[in-house]
Design a protein that fits this description.
Layout: H1 4-16, H2 29-37, E1 43-58, E2 63-83, E3 88-91, E4 94-97, E5 99-102
Antiparallel strand pairs: 1-2, 2-3, 2-5, 3-4
Length: 103
Amino acid sequence: MDDTTRVQQEAGLAMCGEACSGAGHRVHPIQATVAASAPGKWVDALASADEHVLDLVTLDGTAVRLWHHLPLHLDAGEPVAYHPVAGVVAVRGAALNVRVLTA
């Protein structure tokens, strides 16, 4: 299984070290705790991504545009899970911290 998102996430951690923080960078432990403790807040969505911008359409039709500091390339319609409370997207087995551009 090719898991380029996880590889990119790990490469980004090595590249940024402690310098990268805040929305769109590394998942903070508090975000991970919030996402794990509020499982009912996850929203299924279909995504596409080009470079740093992720475009999601939730299953109820809501469009959300997000930003992540590492370039991502997702095929149109790829399934993801979005946790708007924690600011996390789960894609290809990796949890990504994201910044909301438009909701």
